[in-house]
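Methods: example folding runs. The two proteins below were folded one after another, and each record is reproduced exactly as written to the output file, sequence line first and structure-token line second.
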Amino acid sequence: MNWPLLYEMQRTLDRRIETEHGLMEEDLFARKQLAFLVELGELANETRCFKFWSIKPPEPAERVLEEYVDGLHFLLSLGLECGLFYEGKEAPSAARPLVEQFLAVFRAAERFRETRARAEYDALFAEYWRLGVALGFSSDDIEAAYRRKNEVNHKRQNERY
């Protein structure tokens, strides 16, 4: 995974949004944290992994991947907000059932919110990447989908989204 490239792409998008919306002087950490959690919930909803009462299948993999990279956008942005950069080289193995992995990400997100510390950010990022692996996505899948969605996000800014 080319993390430096993804961070640079995210930095460009963040700067554009913050400049165009007059947010350059604001601390956006809380809003980005909530946005990440909302995206994480939307991702869980697309997988339907927790919906024991329903027999409807999960959304197609491409839709789930798009939701996953929506969360990745905010995770990268949170790192930039705090001056933190994840540098993991190898995708972690998926060792938990999917519901447990979602809960692990939520727990790690809360610990990071409380501390804004490097160790907690790295742990959150690793848990989120582990979730992507558990969903069946390779590093190449994730990076390519991030690039596509980043382009969409710039287009949305052009259209005054």
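Second run, written to the same file directly after the first:
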Amino acid sequence: MSATKDPATWHWTRETYHHAVEMGLFGETPRLELIRGEIYLKMPMNRPHATAVSKTEKVVASAFGEGYYIFSQLPIRLSTDGEPEPDLTVVAGEPDNYTEHPTEQDVLLVMEISDSTLAFDQGLKSETYALAGIAEYWVLDINARTLEVRREPHGKTYRSTRLYDETESASPLAKPEAQISVAALLPK
């Protein structure tokens, strides 16, 4: 008697993924992201999510100031065959410093804003960023009105996780003197 096996999946590298997009394999450029060799369709953005992205980009840019650049919903290249598009990525320098998408070595802070994708952001996305060695990952939970700060990547997890409510402020590792109010990131 033979053992049953699940069907194999196709592992996408960044190169094959980009080639498929260039060839028009996915049609009218849907919102996709490559995570650990698998292609995911991004959820449509509702108004509270869009508001939180806009507010967060402005607040984080102000907190970091000169010498830092905020990428909003743009790809980052990960060595784990991924090119996720976090809601917010903080890197040092200016946009012109990056002739290609930033890599995990460039990323100081990555952030997802979550309303309908919380399990995905706390699960696969967190594992992906931890595996890539990204030092700090924040998840803004619009529904619970909290900010989850994950630090110290170790394998697929972060050793440190702290939850901030909307009355508190958090300081990023790369800019510890900055105080980022959770309430300032959330839609009213």
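Comment on the second run: Residues 47-64 form the longest helix (18 residues).
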